[in-house]
Amino acid sequence: MRQKGSFLEILGVSAKLGFTSFGGPIAHLGYFRDEYVKRRKWLDEKSYADLVALCQFLPGPASSQVGISIGILRGGLWGGLASWCGFTLPSALALMMFAFMLKSYNVSSAGWLHGLMIVAVAVVAQAVWGMARSLAPDRTRGSIAILTAILSLLWTSPYSQLVLIAAAGLFGRLFLGKPETPETPRQGIPLSKWTGVVAWTLFFGLLAGLPLLRQGIQSHFLAVFDSFYRVGSLVFGGGHVVLPMLQTEVVQTGWLTDSQFLAGYGAAQAVPGPLFTFSSYLGTVMNGWLGGLIALAAMFLPSFLLVAGSLPFWETIRSRSHFQSALKGINAAVVGILLAALYNPVWTSAVHTPLDFCLALLAFGLLMLWKLPPWVVVLLSAAAGQVTSLFL
């Protein structure tokens, strides 16, 4: 893939995903695959899986980092910014409005929300099926995927995915052999290694320097930026793993009450896009629109720096034959992680009754057999969830 996408093109495509990608980070990867790999062919299946594997190694929201990576590959740093804006701002702005108008509104029992949770089952199942066929096609790699799924479900440490991916990579390096021919063309990453070094320097410099500045400069906005930047830099696993860290930063410091925090968390379940946009709600409750924008920027800045710092070196590393062998194991493990996530949290949070299962099957059939666009299936599932809630 060459650097050929305009800012507006990337922004438009990612914004469509930002408005329709319900269901959490694993579902987001399914939506990304359908849009970027299958529909637009901005990158191939193997390159997409490699990006997913890379972002699983990095702290922060993996799905957002995958989106930023694809934007950078398509249009450089501006493309990465466009991809982040399109995917993130719809939910961030919605949560900022929630902070002003709907703080006490309970969306946890809304029928349409349950429908959105059900469609996530179908989206993730479709992604698992498609990726398994290309990335775990033989008995060995299929076994890696199944074993990874089992261990992911039984070992729930925030670092379990990182360890399992590393172990699968080591197994692939030792036992899966070198690929006979290059499996993936070079992507032509439009970032220099010097840019990568600068990004890594900024990442660690801010991580170490912000707490020192916070001690020397008495500024509430600086303290907020430091807190959210630190959370975005240090949380592994993404998604719901970030909640206890955020609660420590904003509730125990007295910036928010528990009820305000939980009300915002409920609202965050009702919007598409990454859960990390919850930061925009928290910042808005504390300091209005400006606070929301500062918290949002601080939360996602580490992800942007990590991706920009890693991609220039990732191209060199992934092209080496020995690492290609490791990637065979890593990609099979990614399939296993997706498979485990299909059960928990996606299935366990959405499918509670036979009717739920029927709706999930219907959505799966519309995606797999009738080839309807995911956003259409999302809307239909939301409507079905709302209708069924009126009669149950």
* Biggest pleated-sheet summary: none
Q: Report the count of strand segments.
A: 0
Low-confidence stretches: none
Q: Give the helix proportion (percent range).
A: over 70%
Cα distance spanning the termini: 50 Å
pLDDT averaged over residues: 86
Which word captures the global form? globular
Domain unit count = 1
Strand content: under 5%
Q: Please give the count of helices.
A: 15
Structural class: mainly alpha
Rg is: 20 Å
**What letter string, H or E per element, gives the SSE order?**
HHHHHHHHHHHHHHH
Explain this structure.
- The mean pLDDT is 86.
- The protein is built from 15 helices and no strands.
- The chain has one domain (1-105, 134-177, 190-349).
- The radius of gyration is 20 Å and the shape is globular.
- It has 392 residues and is an all-alpha fold.
- This is Chromate transporter.
Q: What's this model, at a glance?
A:
With 392 residues, the chain is mainly α. It has helices at 7-20, 25-39, 45-57, 62-101, 111-135, 139-154, 160-175, 193-216, 220-234, 242-250, 258-268, 278-318, 321-350, 354-368, 374-391. It has one domain (1-105, 134-177, 190-349).
